[in-house]
């Protein structure tokens, strides 16, 4: 029974379009590899978690795909072409801690930044961009806070602003670096509902995730990472104690409750 | 006012504006110390340029000095990237070395040329009107006015063209990179503008005091606003105001103009630091005091709500039960009475309807997660506005 399921889903994945393809990717900091020879195919329309211990290279993988870090070997393609050519298809939600929340700007202004990519250099955002930003704020339930200075927002609200900024890009592929870090339960549910809506619209969502307990509940695809790729595939097939143990190095027991 | 006086004030004001613009972004990027490093390390560039051109306002000299500025930034980043030392250490290593090369170059050739360290470091605005720019024999004004005017025009042009790019790469480098706005290009662009401005301004206010004009107005503006455009505007206003008032202070004291301008910058920062409506020290202390009172009031009301027993609500017992000193208990009791939140009959304190409502709302506020629902309550409670 189990085997049949596996066969089915594998066929599904290979029949579908590949959204992100990573070939032989190796990334090093000062000649110390943090990602070693990663091969990865992410099918279109999945909601995928990247899991692994601290220092496994989860954020590094995302940053390398997005061209923020330069790999020492390997290549990345988005729908068959290089990232530079496909920027418009990709949205990115960095870790919340990566920016200075005391920066003099408002929630609306931060969301507007999501439109900068489609504007290109020099051209400035206008009414159309503002309207898009307001709609995105509405979607994440942050419209009442649009003029709030960003340091006056709670951690969960800041995360929602980041999410709205990605939504405004109207991308096909979303990369999110720990969107659930430091948010309360209400925000976590709000965010996961939006992610599920994105998947319904056949968008591909890739999330660096820490809470192993919620993986089966939130995601349908998972990649285990610890410097090397341990496994990747449908959650129901590969999210098991064996892979968890291989990834985290200790005898992991996360029983998947049905 | 004589023509020379007007010209000096004009030059000082233009320098202030030209410095405030890159300065705002340096402050937001937490790179204030880099401007200090640049201001020192451009000295060898200035000296070499001067040996070649014999003219402190030559474009070649400005170019050479700007290149030295960029070299400083590159060296600092290179040393930092090795991971052996931190950024501040790297800055501290690089600029004294470049600066000392400049000092030695001047000392070795001091007999031949009219250039001394004091002139470069401190500048002399008072002499600026004497060095005229002649075009086809026509006097079109002081040279330094034209130099700083051109630099300012370019800076303003770049600011208008790349405001969006500067903002996004300052706020979120990762996003800027992923959207295709190369943070390196913007970073080195800003560093070039800062270097060029420093060179253009150094013979007016001196290479060191340029740092004050870059950092102080921006730091002052930062305390007053939550809007980047306003911050730029405020920084420019503070810069110009200090330039003009500093000039008249110097006139009145018969002292160095650059020194007086910097003194004014310091004074204005101090004033804003103390009296800024939201981030100022006095406002913060006042808010803390208000919050303390509100917390005390809430604690007191909650205690009343939780206890129906009369002995728990006796005026004399309250002091002991909540463990407050007399003065504080008295303040809180009076505050609650004044707002009709409690009534005292026979020394027994009870909550009024209004008091009950207030307490219930406050508890709701504290325990609820649905922030948008209770947005309107922020105005009722000082406590939650912090």
Question: Tags for this entry?
Answer:
heterodimer, A: 258 residues, alpha/beta, six-stranded mixed β-sheet, 11 helices, disordered N terminus, B: 386 residues, mainly alpha, ABC transporter involved in vitamin B12 uptake, BtuC, Arc Repressor Mutant, subunit A, two-stranded antiparallel sheet, two-stranded antiparallel ribbon, elongated
Offer a concise description of the structure.
Chain A is α/β, with parallel strands linked by helices.
Question: Mind describing the biggest β-sheet of chain A?
Answer: 6 strands, mixed
CATH architecture of the largest domain in chain B: Orthogonal Bundle
CATH superfamily annotation of the largest domain in chain B: ABC transporter involved in vitamin B12 uptake, BtuC
Rg of chain A (C-alpha, Å): 18 Å
Structural features, described:
The complex is a heterodimer of chains A (258) and B (386). Chain A has helices at residues 2-15, 58-65, 83-86, 107-112, 116-119, 127-139, 155-167, 185-200, 215-218, 235-238, 241-248, and strands spanning 18-29, 32-43, 47-51, 73-78, 90-93, 173-177, 204-208, 221-226, 228-234. Chain A is α/β, with parallel strands linked by helices and 258 residues long. In chain A, the strands form 2 sheets. A 6-stranded mixed beta sheet of chain A has the order 5-6-7-3-8-9, with helices on both faces. In chain A, strands 2-1-4 form a 3-stranded antiparallel beta sheet, with helices on one face. In chain A, helix 6 packs across helix 7 (155-167). In chain A, 43% of the residues are buried. Mean pLDDT of chain A is 86; it is low at 1-14. With 386 residues, chain B is mainly alpha-helical. Chain B has 2 domains: 3-123 and 137-279, ABC transporter involved in vitamin B12 uptake, BtuC; 285-384, Arc Repressor Mutant, subunit A (Orthogonal Bundle), CATH 1.10.10.10. Chain B has helices spanning 3-28, 32-41, 43-53, 59-81, 87-109, 117-122, 143-171, 173-178, 183-205, 209-222, 228-253, 257-275, 281-306, 315-322, 326-338, 353-367, and strands at 132-135, 138-142, 342-345, 348-351. In chain B, the strands form 2 sheets. In chain B, strands 1-2 form a two-stranded antiparallel sheet. A two-stranded antiparallel sheet of chain B has the order 3-4. The longest helix of chain B has 29 residues, at 143-171. Chain B is elongated. In chain B, 40% of the residues are buried. The model of chain B has no long low-confidence stretch (mean pLDDT 84). The A-B interface holds A 30, 63, 66-68, 84, 87, 90, 92, 94, 98-100, 103-106, 110, 113, 116-117, 119-122, 124-125, 141, 144-145, 149, 151, 154, 157, 165, 184-186 and B 28, 30, 83, 161-165, 167-168, 170-175, 177-181, 222, 225-228, 230-231, 369-372, 375.
């Amino acid at each position: 029974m189990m085997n049949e399921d596996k066969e089915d889903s594998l066929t599904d994945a290979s029949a579908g379009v590949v959204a992100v393809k990573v070939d032989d990717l190796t990334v090093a900091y000062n000649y110390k590899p943090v990602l070693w020879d990663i091969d990865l195919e992410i099918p279109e329309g999945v909601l995928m978690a990247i899991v692994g211990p601290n220092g496994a290279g989860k954020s590094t993988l995302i940053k390398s795909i997005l061209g923020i870090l330069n790999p020492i070997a390997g290549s990345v393609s988005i729908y068959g072409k290089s990232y530079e050519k496909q920027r418009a298809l990709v949205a990115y939600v960095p870790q919340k801690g990566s920016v200075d929340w005391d920066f003099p700007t408002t929630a609306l202004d931060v969301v507007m930044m999501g439109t900068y990519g489609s504007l290109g250099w020099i051209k400035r955002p206008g009414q159309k961009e503002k309207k898009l930003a307001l709609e995105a704020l509405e979607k994440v339930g942050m419209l009442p806070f649009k003029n709030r200075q960003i340091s006056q927002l709670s951690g969960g609200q800041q995360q929602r602003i980041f999410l709205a900024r990605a939504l405004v890009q109207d991308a096909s592929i979303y990369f999110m670096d720990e969107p659930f870090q430091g948010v309360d339960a209400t925000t976590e549910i709000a965010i996961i509902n939006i992610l599920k809506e994105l998947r319904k619209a056949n968008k591909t969502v890739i999330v660096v995730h820490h809470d192993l307990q919620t993986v089966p509940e939130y995601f349908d695809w998972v990649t285990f990472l610890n410097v090397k790729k341990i496994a990747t595939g449908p959650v129901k097939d590969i999210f098991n104690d064996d892979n968890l143990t291989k990834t985290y190095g200790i005898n992991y027991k996360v029983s998947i409750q049905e | 006012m004589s023509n020379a006086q007007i010209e000096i004030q004009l030059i000082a004001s233009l320098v202030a504006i030209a410095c405030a613009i890159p300065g705002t972004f340096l402050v937001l990027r937490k790179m204030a110390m880099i401007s200090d490093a640049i201001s020192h390390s451009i000295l060898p560039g200035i000296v070499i340029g001067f040996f070649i051109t014999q003219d402190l306002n030559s474009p070649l000299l400005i170019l050479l000095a700007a290149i030295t500025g960029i070299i400083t930034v590159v060296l600092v980043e290179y040393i930092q990237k090795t991971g052996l030392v931190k950024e501040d250490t790297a800055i501290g290593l690089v600029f004294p070395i470049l600066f000392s090369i400049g000092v030695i170059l001047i000392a070795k050739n001091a007999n031949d040329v009219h250039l001394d360290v004091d002139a470069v470091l401190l500048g002399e605005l008072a002499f600026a009107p004497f060095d005229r720019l002649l075009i086809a024999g026509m006097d079109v004004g002081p040279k330094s006015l034209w130099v700083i005017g051109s630099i300012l025009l370019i800076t303003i042009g770049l600011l208008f063209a790349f405001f969006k790019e500067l903002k996004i790469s300052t706020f979120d480098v990762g996003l800027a990179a992923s959207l295709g706005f190369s943070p390196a290009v913007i970073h080195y662009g800003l560093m070039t503008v800062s270097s060029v401005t420093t060179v253009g301004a150094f013979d007016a206010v001196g290479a060191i005091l340029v740092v004050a004009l870059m950092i102080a107005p921006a730091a002052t503006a930062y305390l007053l606003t939550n809007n980047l455009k306003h911050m730029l505007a405020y920084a420019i206003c503070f810069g110009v105001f200090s330039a003009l008032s500093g000039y008249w202070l110097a006139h009145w004291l018969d002292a160095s103009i650059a020194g007086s301008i910097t003194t004014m910058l310091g004074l204005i920062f101090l004033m804003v630091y103390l009296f800024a409506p939201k981030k100022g020290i006095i406002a913060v202390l006042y808010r803390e005091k208000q919050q303390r009172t509100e917390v005390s009031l809430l604690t007191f009301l909650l205690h009343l709500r939780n206890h129906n027993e009369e002995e728990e609500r006796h005026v004399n017992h309250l002091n002991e039960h909540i463990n407050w000193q007399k003065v504080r208990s008295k303040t809180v009791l009076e505050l609650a009475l004044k707002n009709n939140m409690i009534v005292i009959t026979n020394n027994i304190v009870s909550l009024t309807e209004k008091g009950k409502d207030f307490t219930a709302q406050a508890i709701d506020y504290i325990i609820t997660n649905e922030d948008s629902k209770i947005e309107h309550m922020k105005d009722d409670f000082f406590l939650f506005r912090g």
